[in-house]
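Incident log, support desk, overnight shift.

02:14 A customer reports that sequence design results differ from what the structure should imply. Their input is reproduced verbatim below. On-call engineer (initials T.W.) acknowledged and began investigating.
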């Protein structure tokens, strides 16, 4: 089999890349090692920046997003006795949307299977080869156990943090990585209960950080800071609701509780791998970088990467010009580092380290963001998403 772009991984990055390319007349094949059901059920991010919404709308996937997604005009920052709203349109003229990554992925898969480029689930043993030449290929075993070869002009490594692409880019000291693991994790729950708030609440509390998010008018998404080695079995639903109620407590406000339908512990790390390219193999999304979730950048970065990459590949494959392909890694990494800084900063400001000096600095910074328009605007611009070439 032959295609122009062989795409490894059907997460948001790979699926959106395939669609962006198809709209420019470039064909691709997407190879995914999980099943469709698994890919559609994975609960992850929930916040889309304005540019992500615009990109999904531009590729014809805006209908359900605009019908079921919830446009948000700000967030609350909370610390003891204070809950302060940052109003994004006033601060930076932009908004964000609540629309689950599961929904984005479902929309992308449905569009792909409805006349889009081939998307193969359940493949295994995926190995990119000859990426230093102009005719790389991907060896893989299809869902029926048959070994196959996909000849291509370009390979896109959108196979997430544990994929096969990044090791190949880094092989033989070709690049380097930067990493920070944080001494805390998030316990995330999905609950069948109406959100108790109109906007997301990011709460600093002596017991640890808590975040109140949502997925729909009847489903809440909540997170609690816990130790990274915390066992989920030790957190009964009652203990989770009590912990959340304590951390969000504010006079005259109450947290609605309800049945918890999913719970898991998420590790937190920052990770950047550079360059995001080796020859004809290009990385995008979590394959190249991870941010801690505070600030909701992971999914948005993946979307920004493939938007840049699609433009570069169209220029390379339609016009034979290498300029945008050559500058892709540096341009993508500039935004990656901006988001890496923002996510690190939000994480550092909001999580309890156990050290009281740290706590006073955090509270001082929170008061600053809540009282200075300049400080609030800096948060708002980053949260809602900087323009693409940043
Ligand atoms: P992925 O979504 O990881 O997609 C990669 C795909 O490649 C997967 O489908 C995988 O099965 C497939 N794959 C892997 N290896 C192979 C292989 N060898 N062959 C073929 N296919 C392969 N971000 C936020 O902004 N907010 C959040 O709240 C948030 N929560 C998260 C919670 C969890 C548990 C995780 C893991 C991530 C979370 N993120 C969050 C980050 C966000 O979900 C990611 O940044 C986003 O999924 C990146 O998209 P991607 O397409 O690059 O990677
Ligand atoms: C969600 C996750 C985040 O990391 C965040 O900062 C805001 C919302 C969420 O899953 O809804």
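02:41 Re-run completed on a clean worker. Output:
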């Amino acid at each position: 089999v032959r295609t122009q772009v062989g795409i490894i991984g059907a997460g948001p990055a790979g699926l959106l890349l395939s669609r962006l390319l198809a709209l420019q007349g470039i064909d691709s094949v997407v190879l995914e090692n999980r099943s469709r059901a698994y890919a559609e059920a994975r609960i992850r991010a929930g916040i889309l920046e304005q540019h992500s919404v615009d990109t999904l709308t531009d590729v014809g996937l805006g209908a359900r997003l605009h019908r079921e997604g919830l446009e948000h005009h700000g967030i609350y920052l909370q610390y003891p006795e204070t809950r302060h709203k940052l109003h994004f349109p006033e601060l930076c003229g932009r908004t964000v949307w609540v629309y689950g990554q599961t929904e984005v992925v479902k929309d992308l898969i449905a569009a792909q299977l409805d006349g889009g480029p081939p998307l193969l689930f359940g493949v295994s043993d995926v190995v990119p080869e000859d990426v230093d030449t102009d005719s790389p290929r991907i060896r893989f075993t299809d869902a029926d156990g048959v070994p196959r070869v996909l000849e291509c002009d370009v390979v896109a490594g959108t196979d997430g943090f544990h994929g096969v692409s990044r090791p190949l880019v880094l092989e033989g000291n070709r690049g380097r990585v930067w990493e920070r693991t944080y001494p805390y994790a998030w316990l995330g729950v999905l609950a069948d209960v109406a959100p108790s708030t109109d906007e997301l609440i990011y709460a600093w509390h002596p017991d640890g950080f808590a975040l109140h998010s949502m997925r729909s008018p009847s489903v809440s998404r909540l997170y609690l800071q816990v130790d990274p080695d915390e066992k989920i079995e030790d957190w009964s639903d009652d203990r989770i609701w009590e912990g959340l109620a304590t951390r969000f407590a504010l006079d005259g406000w109450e947290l609605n509780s309800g049945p918890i339908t999913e719970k898991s512990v998420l590790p937190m790390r920052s990770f950047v791998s550079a360059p995001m390219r080796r020859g004809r193999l290009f990385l995008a999304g979590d394959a190249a970088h991870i941010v801690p979730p505070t600030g909701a950048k992971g999914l948005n970065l993946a979307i920004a990467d493939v938007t840049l990459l699609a433009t570069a590949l169209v220029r390379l494959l339609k016009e034979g010009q290498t300029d945008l392909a050559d500058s892709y890694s540096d341009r993508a990494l500039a935004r990656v580092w901006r988001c890496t800084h923002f996510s690190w900063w939000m994480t550092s400001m909001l999580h309890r380290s156990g050290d009281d000096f740290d706590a006073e600095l955090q509270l001082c910074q929170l008061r600053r963001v809540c009282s200075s328009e300049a400080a609030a605007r800096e948060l708002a611009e980053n949260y809602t998403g900087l323009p693409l070439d940043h």
